[in-house]
Amino acid sequence: MADITLDSVTKRFGETTAVDDVSLTVGDGEILGVVGPSGCGKTTTLRTIAGFETPTEGRVLFDDEDVTRVPPEWRNVGLVFQSYALFENMTVRENVQFGPKMRGVSKPERRRRASELLDLLDIAELADRDPTTLSGGQQQRVGLARALAIEPTILLLDEPMTGLDAQLKTRLRRELVDLLDDLDVTALYVTHDQAEAMVVCDRMAVMNGGRVEQVGAPEDVYERPANEFVADFVGTSNRLPATARNGRLHFGHATTPAPDGDEGDVTVVARPEAFRVGEGPFDATVRERAYLGEHVRAVADLPDGESVTLRVDPATAPAPGERVSLALDTERVHVLSDS
Amino acid sequence: MSDADSGPVRGGGTDDQTDDRPRPDGGLTVEDRQIRERSWKRSPSAVLGRPLVLTVFALTFLFLVFPVVATFVASFAREWTGVLPSGFVTLTHWEQVLGFGGYEDAADYSLKLGAVLRTLTENPLAAPSQSPLFRSMWLALGGVLVNLVVGVPIAYAVARYEFPGRDLLNAFAVLPLAPGIVLGVAFLRAYPELSGTDFGLIVGYSLLKAPFMVMAVQSSFESMPLRQLEESARSLGASWPRTFLSVIVPNAKRGIVSGAIICWALAAAEFNFSYVVFSRGARPLALFLKANISNSSFLTTAAAVSVFFLLVAAVTAALQLLGNRGFST
Amino acid sequence: MSTDEAAGGTGGTDGRRADALAAVSAAFHAGAARLPDPLGRVLQPHTERDRERRRVIALCAPFCLLATVAGVYPLSEMLRISVSEAKYVSEGFSLSAYERLLADPHLRASAVNTLWFSLATTIVSLGVATATAHALEKYDLPFRGALLTLLSFPISLPGIVAAFMIIVLLGNTGLVTNLVAWFTGRSSVDLAVATSVGGLFVAYCYSMIPRAFLLLRGSYAEVNERTEEAARSLGASPARTFYHVTLPQIKPGVIGAFILTFRTALAIFGTVLILQTLRVWTYEIDYALSSGSGFDIQLAAAMATVWFAFVLGFTALGLRYTSAEVGL
After folding, report:
1. Looking at residue A279, which CATH number applies to its domain?
2. A294 and A188, same structural domain?
3. Given CB atoms, is C285 within the 8 Å cutoff of chain B?
4. pLDDT tens, N- to C-terminus, chain A (339 residues)
5. Do B24 and A226 count as a contact with CB atoms less than 8 A apart?
6. Does C280 touch chain B if contact means CB atoms closer than 8 Å?
7. Which chain A residues are within 8 Å of C244, Cβ to Cβ?
8. Residue B20, class by beta-carbon neighbours within 10 Å (0-12 exposed, 13-18 middle, 19+ buried)?
9. Contact B126, B281 (CB under 8 A)
10. How many structural domains does chain A have?
11. Is the ipTM of this complex over 0.85?
């Protein structure tokens, strides 16, 4: 175990800045999710930690050690790839033993370690198979076993679940959470899927345009997004312009009590579940209704031209065209000052 | 390259960040910790590998490119007796090689462009055939035309359809069946009268260079969804021949054009086959080069070879315009 | 309408012509129906599969025609004269030409020369080409596109020009020769190696390195870089990463390049003709055809047949028993 510190790391490729002055700490044993749209710099950040990119500026620290210029083979960092990247010229067991072999671990010891990991990941019966004959899920387990065989202090996972089907993803994700907890390894989990990051990670960092927009526990990021980008990227959100005055929010046609905070022109960020259909100050007309199984997502127009997305119970969901009254739970909204 | 060498630079953006808003990523306080660099040592291959490989690369590059440049430069020199050629700039060697100026009687090995120009007014049709340059161009063009008719369909058959013997046929289409000298002997025996004529040379060139056409076209076909293209065109009412000619072929245009250019250049440069079967008429280009290398002075030969370089450079430029990087084999 | 494909558009406005065509078409169909089934189905297809077969045949026909006229027929004539009893006409059967081949110590020496020389130049060229391809594909070299163009330039140069390039470098007035002479103070004529076996070796490499390089570059492009990164992160040094991870991935390409480069080496002729230092097999074929040996086409044909059979067998075995990938 080790903690990871990025100290003002910038990485430029020619004219483009892939990572722009990022400072980040991943605590000992913590799982940090890094999410963001493609091209936001999350993979470059991961590769900088792994040692495949040397930062243009800034430092990378593992505990109290500066590893900025240390080559990848001296970092003791496990890597799990989206494309698995298994060695196709070796069997599953040879794949897992490769790391210990490169580190001069004795033959019986590497066999023991490999068997242990194959058992742990429930793929012992695949040990002598050729990786190309395995399914995606099995290949990813091998990839994980291979990365863990070097007993890494840090584990980096680059979109490890992308490319697996939904059911498998759910199962593997749960196993991964248990495994990472048991192993007490510091992990960085890069994904474009914020829902996945919320399940797997202790904290998550949202990146955009090479910068970190917000770091925090999944609930914090979801409930209290730092800015409109985060609000939009993490889950569906409604944004309504309003004026905060004397402890109340004025929406034009409706007012609600305001949570503590700034006065003046603000943007109110409200998740679909913050609205409740029933008695409330907002008059709305339902425009669309989409049945999603567990719930219904409805879009309703407000009189001043704004529209809001609602999440309602299928049993009581209003039909398109129906006029409804909406209440807003102001405990669950986040107010961003416009100034 | 420079990334690995540039050390960690402290500060960066943090120093000039004047507003005291909290950083979204939490900022950092590492200054109060004791930081030391992790100890590590380079493995021998990390130290030596890259310089070694780069040295081989640089030497190879010099070995391949330097004589070409030197030849071209020397073709403009008056003499080359010391370490470097001297007496720049003269066009004598070029005039001699191209067949201009007063050398014509002696210069049996020139491109005879002067003679072509003079007879152009009297007999415009026969004039170009006197020059090795034009004769080669025409022969190579003939070879390319045959290759188009032969190479494009077979490339499509192999890329699009499954049929017994497909892999074998592909191997024959992509691997040269016999090299120039063996084919030359075979032609001499099979077509004793025809082998040295335009017809013999064109047929021989087209078989020798067919693999390059097939490969160039195949690389185009490989990136095309052939089945979907064919099926959608046919479902829209096009007959199969029409689909092939008006959908498949235009879509593979780039591969076909670059294949044609490559075949043309390689046919113009074919020496071994031409040498064995050639009997009369203006020498093909490769034989013109041979005659110069064997008989002319060093610097005249340099000019003759430079003519050929210019031709290859023009072909390479044409390929680059098509988005193809140089010769693909 | 299945006739569309065979006869092109038959939609003429002239009624009489259409009638005549219909009659011809009917006769054709009746005739086709009487042919043995597979052939009949090609001419008059019943199913889409039959039509597909007909298309494949139509697409392959031009190539097969060319291969027959320019390849199979001449090569078979070459084989016939090589086993003929008469020297200039193909008649009877005799292996006398091959017996002369075996009996001639010069030719035996030439065969041995050809093989070791080709093998040695192939191995050196492949080694150099691998390093060159590695540098170009793995290191972020500046002007990569221009380097690639320049490195592939010599591919289109015929062997005689490659020989001249070596004369430019290592001949009596060669650049390297003069440079060494200038430094050491020795006579440049003593130092010139262009027309020695060493010079020929370098000239072979001049033709073969760019070919091998381009073949290997294709293999390098297919290497999964993530696996190399995985190996590095697992603790492998660059050399061990190359040996354990990169090399196994490019191995089929290397074997394929070996086969093709070796074939190239065996076929080189122009270079030897200019530098005149080693009597390789192709040179002997040409010599047999020269007036000096009485235009002995029978012997030349026998030698060419041996060459052809050897290369065909070598290529077939190579492709059959290795994981070689041939072609670009």
Report:
1. 2.40.50.140
2. no
3. yes
4. 688 988 889 999 888 899 998 888 888 888 999 998 888 888 999 999 998 989 999 989 888 888 888 888 888 899 998 888 899 889 999 999 999 998 888 999 999 999 999 988 888 899 899 998 998 888 988 999 999 998 898 999 998 888 788 888 888 888 888 888 888 889 999 988 888 888 888 899 999 988 999 999 988 888 888 888 888 888 888 888 888 888 888 887 788 888 776 778 888 888 888 888 888 888 889 998 888 888 888 999 888 888 888 888 888 888 888 888 888 888 888 888 876
5. yes
6. no
7. 87, 98
8. exposed
9. no
10. 2
11. no
Q: Measure CB to CB from residue B36 to each of A10, A64, A211 and give the nearest one.
A: A64
Strands (E), chain A: 4-13, 16-26, 31-35, 57-62, 65-66, 77-80, 154-158, 186-191, 203-208, 211-216, 238-245, 248-250, 255-257, 264-270, 275-291, 296-301, 307-312, 323-328, 333-337
Task: Report the first-to-last Cα separation within chain A, whole angstroms.
Answer: 43
Smallest Cβ–Cβ distance between A205 and the set B25, B27, B28 belongs to B25
Q: Which residues of C touch B290 (CB under 8 A)?
A: 160, 270, 273-274
- CATH number, residue A189: 3.40.50.300
A82 and A151 housed in the same domain: yes
Question: Closest Cα partner for B151 from C58, C156, C59?
Answer: C59
Question: Which residues between 243 and 262 in chain C have a beta carbon less than 8 angstroms from any beta carbon of chain B?
Answer: 260
Q: Does residue A226 sit in the same domain as residue A246?
A: no
Q: How far is CA A153 from CA A3, A63, A104, C227, in A?
A: 9, 10, 18, 21
> What is the nearest CA distance from B43 to chain A, expressed in angstroms?
10
3-state secondary structure of B234: helix
Q: In chain A, which residue's Cα lies nearest the Cα of B3?
A: A54
> How many beta-carbon pairs under 8 angstroms link A with C?
68
For chain B, list the domains and their CATH numbers: 128-321 (1.10.3720.10)
A232, A251, A272: which is the final residue of a domain?
A232
Structural domain boundaries enclosing A270: 237-337
Which among A66, A69, A70 has the least Cβ separation from residue B35?
A66
Give the domains, in start order, of chain C with CATH numbers. 3-62 (no CATH), 97-321 (1.10.3720.10)
Same domain, A194 and A258: no
pTM value?
0.79
A207, A278: one domain:
no
Average pLDDT, chain B: 78
